[in-house]
Specification:
Helix content: 25-40%
CATH architecture of the largest domain: 3-Layer(aba) Sandwich
Shape: elongated
Structural class: alpha+beta
Radius of gyration: 32 Å
Strand order of the largest sheet: 8-7-9-10-22-21-17-14
CATH class of the largest domain: Alpha Beta
Number of helices: 12
Low-confidence stretches: 54-58, 409-416
Oligomer: single chain
Number of strands: 23
CATH superfamily of the largest domain: Class I glutamine amidotransferase (GATase) domain
Distance between the termini: 28 Å
CATH topology of the largest domain: Rossmann fold
Largest sheet: 8 strands, mixed
Strand content: 15-25%
Length: 505
Amino acid sequence: MSTPDFQAPGGRPSYEPGRRWSAGLNALVGVVALLAIVGMVNYLAATRLQWRHDWASAQRPRLSPLTVATLGALTNEVTAVVLFDPASDLYRHVVGLLREYALQSPRVRVQLVDYVRDAALATAIKTRYDLGANTGDLVVFDAGGGRFRTVDDSEMSTYDADVKGMMAGRSQEIRRVAFRGEALFTAALAGLAESAGSRAYFLRGHGENDPGSDDESRGHSRLARLLSEKNVESRAFTNVLSGVPDDCSVLIVAGPVQPLMSSEVTEISRYLARGGRVLVTLPLETLRRPGHLEGLLEEWGVFLPAQLANDEEASARGFDVVAGSFGSHPITSPLTRAGAKVHFQAPRVVVPIPANRLPADAPKTTALALTGPKGRTLSEFDGRDFAFVEGQDRRGEIPMAVASEKGGVSGLSAGRGTARLIVLGDSALLANAGIKSLGNRDFAALCINWLLDRQQSMAIGPRSISEYRLNLTPPQMRLLNGVLLGALPGGVLTLGFLVWARRRG
């Protein structure tokens, strides 16, 4: 039985092979022409036009002027090696920011290395930069010639904790609230660009914290690493009687347990008088044993009463204080903007002496960090605990850190001979364990920048991270599961069945 030919109404076959090939050729020519037009437009955009639209600009802050200036001043090629797991929460923040750097400067190249999938390349990179075998989630800035800086993921975030929830046992949650990548990346690039760095001298010989120790409670190796990132070399010295070294950019007196001799304090005073910069942290052990150092600090407008600062509404363990109130100062302005907090472990009260009680040429003092409005001082000590004494102690915002400056104008760049002093009422604040807590590392970096008069570096504050949370009750969760797992797939299957049945019928 032969198959009949389908005829068009005019007697001509409705299907002609030649017409099929003609339509196919026209479609092919159209596709090739479209691809050629797209290619030419892209070529013109890449070679002739300097135009780029940032579709995420509304969600991502622009690069700071300091970052733009630092990138513009680069003279060498710098490769940013992103050794990261793409599943990390910080991965998109890091990659997005570094791509902005590369778009801003042709001298910056970004290399992405997934150490999970490309283990061989990751191992070679770790060997090249003498990183540990288990190292991961970091960025290496390589300027060639053996000069490089590393930024670890643990340094890139500012965290916040629900202190009240922890106290009540309702929560143990610590949230990432800000991304510090820009400040760290720009500091790394600036450090690579500098030919010579500064020197920080750690005073030793009085039970101070050791900058070379990794001990969590008494070591300061993390602070020394932070200084290194800022192109500041850390050195320890004990013979202060011969004077503070001439090449000392910052003198750090980190938690002296034993009192300093009068002659030693005199040399520190002379260093300040010639425009020195000093950072002092106070241990709890010296609360009842004042010495000559306290007298020097009082000359610089800083009074140290024998009291402990306390804030029951901002404390996780009783005697620690999570400070969210800051004075008006270049050090604390970025923290205030980012809503960051500084965690004091057991802070002494550090009071700026009012200007009307000081000579006309006295240093200008400013409180940096304070307790909340319901803070208080504790002066009674029974050998084990501190207690509030009515009539002797006071309530309100209690200062725990003070900055003092002499010879310069507040808010302006410090000229030659301008002396600066920072006194922190807690020596554990900058120890290896303390510096990792909440915004302590940011606070330490800002203090160093101010002491070194790196005012522009202080302008790069942490970038806030928006968090969107959907809270559902159990019935709402069951309803959502039913819709997503039952109704939507079931509806698609039902619709498909109806279409199949209709066509079959």
